[in-house]
Design brief:
Chain lengths: 223, 319
């Protein structure tokens, strides 16, 4: 997975990224913030303490950590703002076909930003920066139209045959039809699930060791 | 089509029954089994071996090559399957067999082990009754063990492969019929309570088991577990049992007392906490759940670990 990060503005001496609120800004407020800044750029950069080498490397480390975080999760876009530092990390999935200009003020991408509205209409859902109250955002729309391999029963999902052995399959693996891809365990009954078609594992949807229900998506296997 | 005997390097030979040497007294008597069997599907195709690594592996590795309902019996098993990587040792005197079945409805698949356990206890009940023997009172320890007079004498282990929209299930059963070391067995207990030399024979137990199982399984497929639930509760050890549900979360352990009520519709334990809340209890399958580890005390002994799945049980609202 490739991540592309767009870092704007100069680095403040200490970017306290850990405390920064995540995805707070809608693109509208983001835009206005930018405008304000553009309005008085010189005074602001003067007030900013000069970045030391140490602080820059610390900042880079923190950014690298965030990129890793975004890359490893189901997050397609992460935007943060703290003091005069802004950070936007977007995954390839979030970027629309014609490579957008390297600035972050562009039109909202079709994928909803970090805290998605309950059911985002593709158009102008971003107009209201209302704080979303729904605690569990709906999982992002499947990456492709391929129907996922679903659990045929409820139980506990295991990716490996035994606690300390490697997983049956991981993202990127080619699987054959009939190849065992996971175990669902229910009341000590171990049930091996075979791939229903040949293809490449593009996503492991369920979490190892966690309960799944009947029809819970487990894997996406691209034929 | 190729028949495999997994996990063995030894030479194996495959023979028709008519070409077998005369069985010794200790070995399984195939003729006697078929004389007693009255099923239509289960147990009609039998593979017997004097010595095998695991009957379970034989049926599960050859599932598609064997007619559904086939059974494999061994006199001695040296790599028998227990849970996870546990090995079930089986000296002579144990009845060890595995058989195959198919199911389609994933909601009731886990309950098939209750059907198998119940078929086994009912088979023994019938045999004792028909032979004028006293009842042994074998009990089911949920979810898959058999107890006699406080000792484990048997177990049921099912594995399954979900293939082409069907569950290919291998049911493995071990029962201590004649081997009383190190604890007890059916015939030792019979002798104790009846002071008669009449013994239960493995062939009769197996044939009676399949008769019961076929009957129960048909009911189960058409009507679910409901018709058998009452009988199951009469046979298991847990009705009204007091348990301690131990919930470890974020380093803190909270204990709650609860009473077992029965089974939930999906076949898990249904318990009612002292605070009046109902909860569903899950066995941990020998693998730990992170943050949801619970343990049970059965009659003062911690026998097993269970995990609580539902959030509405008697657990603190720290979720």
């Amino acid at each position: 997975m490739s991540s592309r990060s767009v870092i704007t503005h100069s680095v403040a001496a200490k970017a306290q990224l850990n405390n920064a609120s995540i995805g707070e800004a809608s693109s509208k407020s983001e835009a206005s913030a930018k405008e304000t800044k553009n309005g008085k750029p010189s005074s602001e950069s003067i007030s900013t303490p000069v970045a030391t080498e140490e602080s820059i490397s610390e900042f880079i480390t923190q950014v690298a950590g965030l990129i890793k975080l975004v890359d490893s999760r189901d997050i397609v876009e992460l935007q943060m703002k703290q003091h005069d530092c802004e950070l936007l990390i977007r995954k390839k999935e979030a970027i629309s076909q014609p490579t957008p200009p390297p600035m972050y003020m562009m039109q909202a991408p079709s994928t909803p930003t970090a805290p998605p509205q309950a059911s985002p209409p593709a158009s102008l859902a971003l107009a209201a920066p209302a704080p979303t109250t729904s605690p569990a955002p709906a999982p992002p729309a499947a990456k492709s139209s391929v129907p996922p391999l679903k659990s045929p029963m409820s139980g506990t999902f295991y990716r490996s045959p035994a606690p300390n052995s490697p997983p049956f399959v991981k993202v990127g693996d080619k699987v054959q039809k009939g190849q065992v891809v996971c175990i669902i365990e229910a009341m000590k009954l171990m049930n091996e699930i075979e791939a229903d078609q040949a293809g490449t594992v593009v996503e492991v949807v369920a979490e190892d060791g966690k309960p799944v229900s009947l029809d819970t998506p487990l894997f996406v296997i691209q034929p | 089509c190729q028949f495999q005997v997994p996990n063995t390097n030894a030479n194996t030979s495959l023979r028709l029954q008519s070409h077998l040497p005369r069985p010794t007294n200790a070995s399984f008597n195939v003729d006697s089994f078929f004389t007693s069997l009255s099923t239509c599907r289960f147990g009609r195709f039998l593979i017997w071996s004097p010595r095998l690594p695991s009957t379970h592996d034989v049926v599960s590795h050859n599932f598609s090559e064997l007619p559904v309902g086939s059974v494999c019996v061994a006199d001695v098993q040296f790599k028998g399957k227990g849970r996870s990587a546990n090995v079930w040792e089986s000296p002579p005197g144990c009845l060890m067999f595995s058989f195959t079945l198919q199911m389609e409805d994933g909601r009731i698949v886990p309950l098939v082990q209750y059907i198998a356990s119940l078929a086994l206890t009912e088979a023994i009940k019938d045999l004792c009754f028909n032979n004028g023997l006293p009842q042994l009172g074998i009990k089911i320890k949920w979810p898959n063990d058999l107890y006699l007079n406080g000792f484990k004498v048997g177990g049921v282990l099912c594995t399954s492969t979900y293939k082409s929209k069907k569950f290919n299930i291998s049911v493995g059963i071990g029962l201590n019929v004649d081997n009383k070391q190190p604890t007890t067995c059916l015939n030792a207990r019979l002798q104790q309570i009846a002071s008669m030399s009449c013994q239960l024979r493995k062939e009769d137990i197996l044939a009676s088991f399949f008769d019961k199982f076929e009957n129960f399984f048909d009911q189960f497929l058409s009507q679910g577990f409901k018709p058998l639930e009452e009988l199951y509760y009469q046979t298991w050890l847990h009705s009204g049992q007091r348990v301690i549900v131990q919930d470890t979360r974020e380093g803190q352990t909270v204990e709650n007392a609860a009473t077992i009520q029965g089974l939930t519709s999906s076949g898990y334990l249904l318990a009612i906490g002292d605070d009046g809340q109902m909860c569903e209890l899950h066995p941990d399958g020998n693998r730990s759940f992170q943050g949801f580890l619970l343990s049970f005390s059965f009659r003062g002994e911690t026998w097993d670990e269970f995990a609580l799945l539902t959030g509405d049980g008697p657990i603190p609202d720290s979720m």
